[in-house]
Design a protein that fits this description.
Blueprint lengths: L1 H5 L5 H57 L7 E2 L10 E7 L4 E4 L3 H4 L8 E5 L2 E8 L4 E8 H16 L2 H19 L1 H12 L18 H49 L3 H31 L4 E7 L1 H14 L6 E5 L6 E4 L1 H18 L6 E5 L3 E6 L6 H4 L19 H12 L2 E5 L9 E6 L13
Parallel strand pairs: 1-3, 8-10
Antiparallel strand pairs: 2-3, 2-6, 4-5, 5-6, 7-9, 10-11, 11-13, 12-13
Helix pairs in contact: 2-4, 2-5, 7-8, 8-12, 9-10, 10-12
C-alpha cells in the first residue's frame, strides 16, 4: 500500500517543505528588490545632496581664487592633497564656457559645458551646476552614474547572497518542522496499513491534529462496521459448523448401524449412499470450522516454534487415516525445520489442507512431494496443468479446478486465508516450474518470523 501511495505522487512532507522553502526564497527576493528600489532612491538623494554641497562650497572659493590670480585666462588644476579616487569632480567656468578651475580628475569625466543651473543627467553623468556673481562664474559638480549603480548593486547583493545559505537551512528547518508536525499523521497512516483481517481494532486518535480528527473518526467507524460484519460472518460459519457436527455424527452412527443390520441389497446401497453423503457433510463442517479459524485471529504465536515437528504430526495422521497417503514423499532441510512465530495449529491446518488438496486432485499413480526448507514450504503433485484463468480463482471459497474429484472447494481458500492473516505469501504454479505438468503450492514462511502480520489484501 505504501508503495502504491508513493509511486507517481509527491508526499505531503515534500510538498510542504518545497512550498515553504520556495515561499521564503520568493519573499526574500521580493524584499530584496523592494529594498533595492528604496535604496536606489535614497542613494540618489544622498549623492545629489553631495553634488549640490560640493558646488555651493566650491563657488566662493573659486571666486576668491580667480580674483587673486594674476593670469585669469588660463585654467588652473587643483592638485590633490593625497592620491585618491575622486567620485565627485568639479569644474569652474566663466559665462563664455572658458574653464577657469577644475579638480584633479575632472578631465576623465569630460564634463560638458553650457549646462543650465540645477541637476542634469547627461552622457552617463549626474551633474549639478551653481551660478554666481550674476552668472559670470559657473561651478559644475559631476558624478558617474555607474558609481551609483555599483553602490546599489553591492547593497542588493549584500541582501541576496545570504540566500545561498538560507535556502538549505530553510529546507532543513522546514523538513524537520513538517516531519515533527506530521509525526502523528504518519503514525496514523502506519496504523491503518497494519490493520487487516486479524486486526481491526480502533486506531488511537489522541495525538492527531484537529484537521485529521474527522478522517480518523470515519476510519474507525468503517473499521467497526467491517469488524462487525466479519465477526458475524465468522460466528455464523463457526456456530453452524459446530452445531452440525453432533447431529451429523449421530446420523452417521445410526446409518452405519443400519447398514450393518440391513440384509436387502437395494436398501443397503441406499443406506451406504446416505452414509457417504453424511461423511461429506461431516468433512464440510470440519472445513468450515477451519475456515472460521483461518479468517479469525490467533494466527501468530507469542513465541516462535519449529515447524518440522508439527508437519511430522500432520503427515503421521494423514498416513493413518487417509487412503493414498503412501504416495507422500517428505523432504525436510533439518530435523527442527524453520523457526517461525506462526501458530502451530494454524500451520497444521495450512499443511493438512495443501497436502489433502494434492492427494485428492493429483495423479494417483505419482507421488505427492512435501518439502519444508528454511524459507519455503512446498507441496507438489503430478497431473495435467491448470489453465491460468482457473489458477487465479482457486483460492476463492467453494471454487474447484477442472478435476472431477470430490471436494468442498475450501482447501486452498483456507490456506490462502491463513497466509493473509499471518503475513505469509502463497504462490500457486501450474505446471510446476521447470516441468511440463503438475501443480505446486509454495508458502514463503520467512516473513512470519519478522513481526506482526501484514495487512490483508
Amino acid at each position: 500500500m505504501r508503495t502504491a501511495l508513493r509511486s507517481g505522487r509527491v508526499s505531503l512532507r515534500r510538498r510542504l517543505g518545497a512550498g515553504l522553502a520556495l515561499g521564503v526564497t520568493a519573499v526574500w527576493l521580493a524584499a530584496s528588490v523592494v529594498a533595492g528600489l528604496v535604496l536606489h532612491h535614497e542613494i540618489d538623494e544622498v549623492f545629489d545632496s553631495a553634488l549640490q554641497e560640493v558646488a555651493q562650497r566650491v563657488l566662493p572659493l573659486a571666486y576668491a581664487e580667480v580674483l587673486a590670480r594674476e593670469d585669469s585666462t588660463t585654467s588652473q588644476l587643483m592638485p590633490p592633497v593625497s592620491r585618491h579616487r575622486e567620485y565627485i569632480t568639479y569644474v569652474v567656468r566663466d559665462a563664455s564656457g572658458r574653464e577657469l578651475l577644475r579638480s584633479s580628475d575632472a578631465h576623465r569625466m569630460k564634463i560638458p559645458s553650457g549646462l543650465a543651473p540645477g541637476f542634469q543627467t547627461v552622457n552617463g553623468l549626474r551633474t549639478y551646476t551653481e551660478a554666481g556673481v550674476r552668472g559670470t562664474i559657473l561651478v559644475t559638480a559631476a558624478e558617474g552614474l555607474d558609481h551609483r549603480r555599483a553602490a546599489v548593486l553591492k547593497a542588493i547583493m549584500t541582501l541576496v547572497w545570504p540566500l545561498a545559505a538560507l535556502v538549505p537551512l530553510a529546507l532543513a528547518a522546514v523538513w524537520l518542522a513538517v516531519r515533527l508536525s506530521l509525526g502523528p499523521v504518519l503514525a496514523f497512516r502506519d496504523a491503518i496499513e497494519a490493520r487487516g483481517r486479524g486486526n481491526l481494532s480502533p486506531i488511537a486518535t489522541e495525538d492527531l491534529p484537529t484537521e485529521m480528527a474527522p478522517v480518523a473518526a470515519a476510519v474507525n467507524a468503517l473499521l467497526g462496521r467491517l469488524r462487525s460484519a466479519l465477526e458475524a460472518e465468522r460466528s455464523f460459519t463457526a456456530n453452524s459448523a459446530h452445531e452440525l457436527r453432533t447431529p451429523i455424527a449421530a446420523a452417521l452412527a445410526q446409518t452405519q448401524r443400519l447398514c450393518a443390520e440391513l440384509q436387502d441389497q437395494e436398501r443397503l446401497e441406499r443406506a451406504r449412499a446416505i452414509e457417504g453423503a453424511l461423511r461429506r457433510l461431516s468433512r464440510l463442517s470440519e472445513k468450515l470450522l477451519q475456515l472460521a479459524k483461518a479468517e479469525g485471529g490467533g494466527l501468530i504465536a507469542e513465541t516462535a516454534t519449529p515447524l518440522a515437528p508439527v508437519l511430522r504430526l500432520v503427515i503421521d495422521e494423514l498416513r493413518r487415516n487417509r487412503d493414498g497417503s503412501d504416495r507422500l514423499q517428505v523432504v525436510m532441510a533439518s530435523k527442527a525445520g524453520p523457526v517461525s512465530n506462526l501458530d502451530p495449529d494454524a500451520f497444521a491446518i495450512l499443511a493438512r489442507n495443501l497436502i489433502e488438496n494434492a492427494l485428492k486432485h493429483g495423479d494417483p499413480d505419482n507421488p505427492v512431494v512435501v518439502c519444508l526448507s528454511e524459507q519455503v514450504f512446498e507441496v507438489s503433485n503430478a497431473g495435467p496443468p491448470v489453465p491460468p484463468e482457473d489458477l487465479a480463482h482457486l483460492t476463492r471459497p467453494f471454487t474447484r479446478g477442472p478435476a472431477r474429484t470430490e471436494g468442498s472447494g475450501l482447501g486452498l481458500a483456507i490456506a490462502a486465508a491463513i497466509c493473509r492473516g499471518a503475513g505469509l505469501r502463497l504462490d500457486l504454479a501450474s505446471p510446476i516450474p521447470g516441468e511440463m505438468s503438475g501443480f505446486q503450492a509454495s508458502v514463503h514462511i520467512a516473513a512470519a518470523a519478522s513481526g506482526p502480520p501484514a495487512p490483508a489484501a
